[in-house]
Design goal:
The protein is 42% helix and 23% strand. It is of the alpha+beta class. Strands 4-5-1-6 form a four-stranded antiparallel β-sheet, with helices on both faces.
């Protein structure tokens, strides 16, 4: 939060958002693709695949789940952090300040141009991961109007 507070003084515009129904919308195929790039061990990948691919009883019929992860699992925070790594990669070294915690992120920019660039990058990454910004939790505007991030108010 100190880094966000320090960046507020240098910025004019803010883009703050999070992912709609984050854990419930994590796409297993996308997740496994990301993990294949990070994990060399086929054994570990098979364990994760086995964790993700479970059957659910829907009116007497078993159906395989290919979307979402359990919030109660010890793996959920790890998966939640890893799934948006492509967003972190896209927002690094870009001319704007970026911070993320799980599915909440904030971009602080000196002018409209970089802010538009950040929004375009975020939209492209989220589309590739098959998730959406939460419309009620997205704020785009001037830093001087103030904004909330992770329970803190920045003015």
């Amino acid at each position: 939060m100190r880094a966000v507070q320090a960046a507020v003084g240098e910025a004019t515009f803010v883009f703050r958002s999070d992912v709609k129904s984050y854990y419930a919308s994590i796409n297993h195929e996308c997740l496994l693709g990301l993990l294949r790039d990070m994990i060399a061990s086929p054994v570990v990948l098979d364990l994760v695949r086995g964790y993700l691919q479970h059957l659910v009883d829907e009116d007497g019929a078993l159906r395989q789940i290919d979307l979402g992860i359990s919030l109660g699992s010890p793996l959920s925070p790890l998966i939640g952090g890893v799934y948006l790594k492509p967003l972190d990669d896209a927002m690094t070294n870009t001319g704007w300040f970026y911070a993320r915690f799980m599915d909440d992120w904030v971009v602080l920019a000196p002018s409209r141009g970089p802010l538009r660039g950040a929004m375009k990058q975020a939209n492209e990454v989220l589309e590739s991961l098959k998730v959406e910004k939460h419309p009620d939790k997205t704020f785009i505007g001037r830093v001087s109007r103030g904004f909330e991030f992770m329970g803190y108010r920045f003015d």
